[in-house]
Amino acid sequence: MNVEQILNNLEKKHPGEVEYLQAVREVLESIEDVVNENPQFEANGIIDRVVEPDRILTFKVPWLSDDGKVNVNLGYRVQFNNAIGPYKGGLRFHPSVNLSILKFLGFEQIFKNSLTTLPLGGGKGGSDFDPKGKSDREVMHFCQSFMMELQAIIGPDTDVPAGDIGVGGGEIGFMYGMYKKIRKEHTGVLTGKGLDWGGSLIRPEATGFGTVYFAKEMLATKEDSFEGKRVAISGFGNVAWGAATKVTELGGKVVTISGPDGYIYDEAGISGDKIEYMLELRATNNDIVKPYADEFPEAKFVAGSRPWEVKVDVALPCATQNELDENDAKTLMANGCMCIGEGANMPCTPEAIEVFLENKVLYSPGKASNAGGVATSGLEMSQNSMKYSWSEKEVDDKLHRIMKDIHDQCVKHGTDEDGFVNYMKGANIAGFLKVANSMLDQGIL
Ligand code: NDP
Ligand code: 2IT
Q1: Is the CB of 259 under 6 A from ligand 1?
Q2: Residue 440 counted as domain residue
Q3: Active-site residue, selected from the candidate residues 103, 124, 274, 398
Q4: Are both 239 and 150 inside the same structural domain?
């Protein structure tokens, strides 16, 4: 396999799709040896087929704002690969959303979902709609209009969307209501649903919990734990909240959270009521973390910077893509950070990852460490099919077991000759093999 040639061709076909090309390069570079050792993959065009989505739906989403004005946003669903199960992946509502970002997320989702051990294909969707500052009525009208188009191509055995940045329980509720009205069925077509109407316990916490369970497994390989560790978290959304809760429970101290305006440094530790306050902050839709420092005066707000300059043992980037660059990575290393677990999708730039690998510290890619969210979505689908609900402990135990299993797969495929575990390589190989073998079994489609 010639990675450069494949990427050059892809770049010609999809000029300017920077995030998508970045994600494809990362995976292809990791799996190069495995592909060369298995000539049946190239003979059957597996690489050429896996890098292109099965199909993409683009549509317009008109909606009325409270002042009576007509607004038009763009909506997308990228159905990437369904070799191992129905397309599965979140919806992102954020002004930065474009096709390149959704294709990168959909591509990553294929291998992440494969790692979960559950029968889930890969997809992603969303809109450039900005939920910030919108009234509930405006969000509802937007979600209904979005679902009028999306409903035509999704279904519980076809494609099952969920949340991502800007899409939480509220948005899922509005979209589910519209699907139900049009299709006249009450099925598990979306995950992240409300607990009263088909949702699963633990799903809101799952991505953050899973990220911390995975980091716990990595630390255990060094006979270490979260006990007494200083932890930097970025973001203040769903994933950051779950991660802060679990780190605190395991005896670690979370000293930062962040937003687009800067970061909060709280030496006293962000725990208990402070974690609940973070959720309130997020719900106010103001897009800033600064008010935390007004509410808790012992904390410091650092405007316009990222939390990676604080001295910590563990860093958990949980906000967005490319939020931790080479300089941040070097600062973390200089400060003695020993473990980096990606809660977000692709938060570390390729140059930052290179720094972590050179320093041989514990580093896990999002497709392994944040897979707990979609895995619990898979558990929600199982419960919906059975028309049954598991207890909190049952779901949490299954999530814990899945994260351990993903860790084992990374160790199996990512251990170098000197014993160092390259989790990125391990995750990419393990995720890819299952999908590639399924595609082989099913013929050229
Ligand atoms: P949320 O919308 O709940 O939160 C995202 C958080 O990151 C928000 O606080 C957001 O603020 C903040 N943020 C956005 N841009 C920046 C920035 N440049 N600097 C600092 N903070 C920023 O989304 P989630 O918590 O659900 O998602 C976070 C990440 O985790 C994403 O990468 C997502 O793809 C990934 N993920 C999510 C899963 C899930 O189940 N929800 C599962 C697996 C991964 P704002 O929106 O105001 O800009
Ligand atoms: O990036 C992700 O894995 C998610 N946003 C969750 C997807 C899902 O279907 O639960």
Answers
A1: yes
A2: no
A3: 124
A4: no
Both 249 and 118 in one domain: the answer is no
Indicate the pTM of the whole model: 0.96
Confidence (pLDDT) at 283: 80
**Residue located nearest, by CA, to atom 3 of ligand 1:** 237
373 CB under 6 A from ligand 2? Answer: yes
What total number of domains does the chain contain? 2
Question: Two tokens at 410?
Answer: 């990374």
What's the CA-to-centroid distance between 66 and ligand 1, angstroms? 27
Q: Is 108 in the pocket of ligand 1 (CB under 6 A)?
A: no
Q: What CATH number is given to the structural domain containing 344? A: 3.40.50.720
By the 8 A CB rule, do 285 and 312 touch? no
The verdict on whether 124 is a catalytic residue reads yes
CATH number at residue 33: 3.40.50.10860
| β partners of residue 265 | 256, 300
Residue 409 identity:
Q
Residue with tokens 């689908």: 381
Q: What is the pLDDT of residues 77-97, one digit of tens each?
A: 999 999 999 999 999 999 999
With a 6 Å cutoff on the Cβ, whether 236 touches ligand 1 is yes
Q: Which of 411, 397, 401, 402 is closest to 375 using CA atoms?
A: 402
pLDDT digits (tens, 9 = 90+) for 108-127: 999 999 999 999 999 999 99
